[in-house]
Input
Amino acid sequence: MIGLVDCNNFYVSCERVFNHKLNGRPVGIMSNNDGCIIARSEELKALGIEMGTPAHLVRHLVERGEIVLHSSNYELYGDMSHRVQGILERETAGVEPYSIDEMFVRMDGFEPEALLEHAKSLHRMIRRGTGIPVCVGVAATHTLAKLANRIAKKHPGYPGVCILHAESDEARHLLQQIKVSDVWGVGRRLNERLQILGINTAWDLREADAKRLRRKFSVNMERTVLELRGISCLEMNDFNEPRQRIMTSRSFGRPTSQLCDLQGAVRQHAQRGAEKLREQKSLARAVLVFLKTDRFRPDLPQYSPSLAVEMERPSQDTRDILHAAQEALRKIYRPKYGYKKAGVMLIDLTDESRQQLSLMETPQTEEERQRSQKLMATMDALNEKMGKGTVRLGLPEKNAPWHLRCANRSPRYTTNWDELMVAYTDEGAAQKNKANKLC
DNA sequence: TGGGAAGCT
DNA sequence: AGCTTCC
Output
């Protein structure tokens, strides 16, 4: 059996662990640049504020003190996510993180009653160990485990935990109540097309002709049907395969037309991309850079170029990647546009073990490669130990227009020595905590 | 008026 | 390359 542990309103729950004043209040967390609302407490949902609402549309509610909006604090959420993962690693036979707030776990070899107890104890232990409320869904396949989790979240009869046995009457009854659009892999478009075929519920989809749907849609649709029947088509390992491309991009706090600003942003992204590349032990052959103007300003001239530059050989060295990225940027840059976003994509990835096979290398290049590896390992180790961005290429820039806007971010309570929780009241400390709220 | 990734067409 | 899907 497969369990899916999903944290409730994860970002809001993380904030609440450290700020009890947020309990019981309508709280939302905003995306990067404080753009739109990407996480909501139950109280905020009850006010009818939808996922993805632009933050400026509810500014008046914030000013009147009726709702609270926080900038997102990914360091905090990432750390809390690791804590949840740590407990699951200790308590289960295997964990597959799927997203920052969802983890699949192996739950094989339990008798039915012991299985329920095990799921309940995970639910309890995570709450106690981290302060984060979670729901646990258990079933024979990933797709059913997702549905079981949904039932645990929404169905009053299954408070926090739901075990779904594929062939049971109970499962049939529950699947008949779930809209097909709530099935994993069925988005807006597929939902419309399925409705036309008279497939409205998760049960309808389960009972549909898998081969026919494969012809009409794709192999993934057939997989979904089989998974709903309890036939596993996804392996646990499918979720931590190395990425086939790595993208880092970000919108700017303010638009800019200056090449040097874009160079700063691209430099940052190239370095972050190279770190991710080394994390998954890959090499990139080419680096693609893209720029975008503000698509919400049709009154201004639009320009969204992109260019891929190939490197001499596949590399994971920040310097090679940065060099290629800057070359690409120089070639696509045109002055007189107000750029709002820049990004770097690492493409044509291969496994780093392939690098060792090049027998034709001269001793110089072999030595160079080892130096590169040592340098990168040292940089990564320092940044791991001392905090992100401790060692990097290029000068730090204050107030660059491409820097993120995040006006109301909570302290990085668990990952930054200067922002630890203050446990006693003292004016100086309170001041300090306040000052730390600024980015 | 977000960011990141994958797969299909 | 653009669209869809996921979170």
